[in-house]
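#lab-general

N.A. 3:47 PM
ok so I finally got the sequence cleaned up, no stray characters, all 176 residues accounted for. can someone with queue access submit it? mine expired

B.Y. 3:52 PM
send it over

N.A. 3:53 PM
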Amino acid sequence: MTHGTRMDTQTPYLDGDRSWRDTATRYALLPLRVFLGVTFIYAGLDKLTDSAFMKSSGAGSIGETMRAVRDSSAIPALVDLALKNPVGFGYAIAFGELAVGIGTLIGLLARLAALGGALISLSLWLTISWANDPYYYGNDLAYLMAWLPLVLAGASMFSLDAVIRGRRRQRAGGYR
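B.Y. 4:20 PM
back already:
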């Protein structure tokens, strides 16, 4: 057994002192951020521009959707709360998805945006897709799990949060 001799043949450095693995790790969450950001922006805009969705009754409306899932949801009281004002709830979800999507995509308050996305996904899983059998047919649970790494890690690359952090470091003399 030889100690102290590196036997691998991988190129150790791509950019200065960082290995290619470090570089890949730094960028690993970027595709997830872009996907979730664009998807939630699209979902919010889709709801806001769908005239049938933003109604309390009728085919394709938020009200009909909530009434259809009420008895099969994990928390019927949550659906009952939404049914008190289905149009208001529909706008809250749509604007929430927009805010989450924009915040995630540009990386502004990224952890808070990701937490908002996780909470939206959790509420949709517990109401709309709860009755899916088997459970993995419902996409809301997968979205909930996809938000968790961003809740934990935030947006360190190509984000307004990183720009703000960098400016704070400059003002503090590089010690933060």
